[in-house]
Amino acid sequence: MSDSLPLLLRAARGESVERPPVWMMRQAGRYMKVYRELRDRHPSFRERSENPDLSYEISMQPFEAFKPDGVILFSDILTPLPGMGINFDIVESKGPLIQEPIRTIHQVNSLQDLEPEASMPFVGEVLNRLRESVKNQATVLGFVGAPWTLAAYVVEGKSSKNYAVIKAMAFQEPELLHKLLNHFAESIASYLRYQINSGAQVVQMFDSWAGQLSPTDYDTFAAPYQRKVIELVKQTHPNTPMILYISGSAGVLERMGQTGVDIVSLDWTVDIAEGIARLPKHVGVQGNVDPGLLFGTPDAIRERIIDTVKKAQERIHILNLGHGILPGTPEENARVFFETGKAVKELIGSGT
Ligand code: CP3
Fold it and tell me: What class does CATH assign to 7-350?
């Protein structure tokens, strides 16, 4: 019976629902005291995300604190890289570091095809345990990085301000970059299939840095590979809703709506009503609330959520932030976000 399915999954599939589901990108992490304490005991990010007991415990922290409608696997978009032969680490206050950035055809040709069951058994185990624990009280989400954003990390070697190294590759040796993007598209599709087979009910693809491309270059280097991942996954798992997120996406929104994705996750540089008008009717929306709002007063948070939900009423809508929750956000304000989201219909009904 479809009634027994969790709210977020039903909403993402386009069923009419009692209220918009709510979760937060990066809902597990540094703004939570329990996470910081666990991090002090286990300072290695790779350990926190690859030891199944720790990854499970961290994934559950926001669920235990706030009961959001979505529980996302605690992991990283870079987690599949070692399974392709690319080593990485995440260094406190510096971010991701790739030991040997990928810059040559020889390196691209030497990449391994990802075999997710073999290289990331911990992901399957954690997703399984999450499903068992949250049952139908929440939807379990899986996620991946999209080919362009993964390529940006492995070519640059770290987070970048202007993406000069990968753009030099794009405009000097495009075949080399296409080969890398294609490798990632195939591996990422098989990783998503593995996540879904292990229990993920909705999956999100982060192409966080595709907003750094001009629309023409987005059509060349980002969209075809997003589409390839989506098509491959839909071939085997047509009923699993897929969400696509890009940071700085206002210039490419229409294009995002053409990738085959079910739901577009908006950042906060576009008005949600205008964003909806720019997407086909069958495509839903997520996000849009400025993460910085959570540094404001509870009233300011409530008012913005109500405004956002009202503007999205006619569309499939998942309440979320426009990017990850920021470190330093007061936990009480995260609570206001979730609680307002869950009571939003009553709040709108009472004219608050
Ligand atoms: O949403 C969730 O709660 C799941 C956890 C999650 C993490 N990373 C954990 C993490 C998710 C969905 C990601 C995705 C991710 N990782 C993206 C796409 C989302 C986005 O923000 O655009 C990107 C670009 C990355 C790469 C990455 N990993 C960055 C830029 C950083 C931050 C570096 C820093 O120190 O600020 C990471 C590390 C990371 N991944 C942290 C967390 C909680 C912070 C490090 C820590 O907690 O020790």
Answer: alpha beta
